[in-house]
Design goal:
It is built from 13 helices and 12 strands. By secondary structure, it is an alpha/beta fold. The longest helix has 17 residues.
Length: 348
């Protein structure tokens, strides 16, 4: 079939949305005449708004009133999409898929949800784990697109708007003015957020790493995260490191990416900001706990410098509902000295 309208559904969260962008590029390449719409939750709109491969971005509330949800479903049905491709599989995405009226519905082999989709692919490979980006590409392939795994493109995020660039440049200019005699410095962007307790490296580890990094000559550390991370940020600042830029809750996703793009190094857990970093050429030092790099490693060309720290434990990967060892050792066994040692070659 030659579709004229395709709806892509991936409601949340940042890293998961970023990893769908190669599939968006593939859809545009193999269905060039189709109108591509992307459905996302409002907090994450900026990750796809302005993507040149999309014709429309539809942003919905994370928790809409029931009447609003029904009204939205009617709007989707009125669009009469030829294809709906569900890259999420969550409860609300499933209801949207079911009631969408799309001629062809594509999604993953999920227990209890097979009936939702006309086209299905498994998230599990016969030879072992499959990266999330490859899973999304496999759904595009199942719709009739022909390409090899080596042809799966890199991540693609919207360019920063002029006002976003001005905001980031003002932060960097202020940091340079505050630096000794206005000297240039090497910027490290450190993500201090976690998303959940299973990926929380802890304020003690973060504070210790900041002190180690701040002791290096001519290095500044930008702390990034959400509003909820400001408490951790305050505790890090209380440690007295003068070379810190407290930016948690101050930048949108694309501004964080622009900051990372200009940095010497990004450091953080498996997270949305890590995937933002993966869309740049900035080196990455990432620490993985309950998740596996085989599923969620930074998706970038092999020549781009990436260091992944992890511990080989039988309880990984973990569904992140209960820690079977009750001490989160998969992540907390990675110490500040180990992370610092991985960072130093990029800051020499």
């Amino acid at each position: 079939m030659t579709p004229s309208k395709i709806l892509i559904v991936r409601l949340r969260r940042a890293g998961d949305i970023i990893m769908t962008t190669p599939a968006v590029t593939l859809l545009r390449k193999h269905f060039p005449a189709a109108k591509l719409a992307y459905l996302v939750e409002e907090p994450f709109r900026r990750l796809v708004e302005g993507n040149p491969d999309l014709d429309r971005v539809i942003a919905v509330s994370p928790k809409p009133p029931f009447a609003d949800f029904i009204r939205f479903i009617r709007e989707v049905r009125n669009e009469a999409y030829d294809i709906l491709i569900d890259l999420h599989g969550g409860p609300r995405a499933s209801w949207i898929t079911f009631w969408s009226g799309a001629k062809v519905k594509a999604g993953y082999e999920i227990k209890g949800k097979r009936f939702l989709y006309d086209v299905r692919v498994s998230r599990r490979g016969a030879g072992g784990p499959v990266h999330s980006v490859q899973n999304h590409a496999n759904l595009v392939r199942a719709l009739g697109a022909e390409f090899g795994d080596s042809e799966i493109p890199p991540l693609s995020l919207p360019a920063a708007k002029p006002e976003e660039i001005v905001r980031v440049e003002a932060i960097l200019r202020g940091a340079k003015d505050d630096n000794a005699a206005g000297k240039e410095f090497k910027l490290v962007v450190l993500h201090i957020g976690a998303g959940n307790r299973f990926r929380d490296w802890g304020k003690e580890n973060l504070s210790a790493l900041v002190k180690l990094l701040a002791a290096l000559p001519n290095v500044r550390i930008a702390l990034v995260g959400a509003d909820a991370d400001r408490g951790v940020q305050d505790e890090i600042l209380a440690g007295g490191a003068a070379a810190v830029l407290p930016l948690a809750g101050r930048l949108n996703f694309i501004e964080v990416r622009e900051l990372i793009r200009r940095a010497a190094l990004f450091v953080g857990p498996d997270s949305g900001p890590m995937h933002l970093a993966a869309s740049t050429e900035t080196p990455i030092v990432a620490y993985f706990g309950p998740t596996l790099p085989a599923h969620f490693a930074p998706w970038r060309p092999s020549w781009t410098k990436t260091v992944i720290l992890q511990k080989d434990l039988s309880c990984r990967p973990c569904p992140q509902r209960e820690c079977v060892t009750d001490d989160f050792r998969c992540l907390l066994a990675i110490g500040p000295d180990e992370v610092f040692a991985a960072c130093r070659p990029f800051l020499a």
